[in-house]
Amino acid sequence: MWFFTKKKKAKERISYDIGAYMVVDIHSHLLPGIDDGAPDTDTSLKLINGLTAKGIQKIITSPHVMADIHKNTPETIQQASNILSPVLQASSVNIPFSYGAEYLLDEQFLDKLNNGQILPLFDDHILVETPFLYRPFNLEDHIFQIQAAGYTPVLAHPERYLYMFTEQELFFKVKDLGCKLQMNVLSLTGYYGKSEKDCAKFLLENNLYEYFGSDMHHERHLWNFSEFRVDEETARLLDKNYNQILNRNLL
User: Fold this and answer.
1) Are the C-beta atoms of 185 and 225 separated by less than 8 Å?
2) In sequence order, what are the beta bridge partners of 78?
């Protein structure tokens, strides 16, 4: 005797206009040759054109600053911007383009903070990240020191931190300490993995994000951003958070 089971219908995935939703991209790696993002101006231009084609009207790019690799300074970032600027001016790109940085909360970060070597994204907002796998022992102190120096910390892609999505009260704790949260939009597509996608949905469900970013590094990111498709539940969460997300206020 044969037994047949009904095949489960896959969740329908729908196209979502994420660029028009974000309007302003506050997290990317588009300056040429200074981190693991765009290696040259041709790639920078291609990625920027791709973002604008999907509705992004302003870009604040954010090269890595780390102690061990990507040892960028305000000077090296300015130099890379000076290389890219004439290329943008000679192209069809016609949107505001500026830079800050993305700072790893490592052993050198507080020295940079205390020595005035910080490039905010905008106003007093600093984009920071932590290791993906383990919690920095001084995370709370870093948040306090950033605020004591007159800045507002914005934690990049919290949905990607293993130590956070296995200890979810940390999301609420860093929020209570005054840290803002920025989601990588590709997390919602499953690009980084199922756990990251589920965590991003949890944070949206709890209205914990203030900012979205592409975290654009390369053409594979661009393709996934351009083909952004999510299930109906995720689209509902995006709609639910529309007034919570502050990117549009930066135009």
Assistant:
1) yes
2) none
CB under 8 Å to 199, separation ≥6 — which residues?
158, 159, 160, 164, 165, 187
Domain boundaries defined on the chain: 16-250
Encode pLDDT of 32-61 as tens digits.
Answer: 999 999 999 999 999 999 999 999 999 999
Least Cα distance to 207 among 165, 160, 241 occurs for 241
Query: Given this model, what pLDDT does residue 28 score?
Result: 99
Structure-token match 């996608």, residue found: 197
Name the pTM for this structure.
Answer: 0.94
Counting other chains too, the contacts that 88-93 makes at CB distance below 8 Å and 24 or more residues apart are: 88/45, 88/48, 91/45, 91/49, 92/49, 93/45, 93/48, 93/49, 93/52
pLDDT-derived band at 12 (thresholds 50, 70, 90) equals confident
- CATH number assigned to the domain covering 16-250: 3.20.20.140
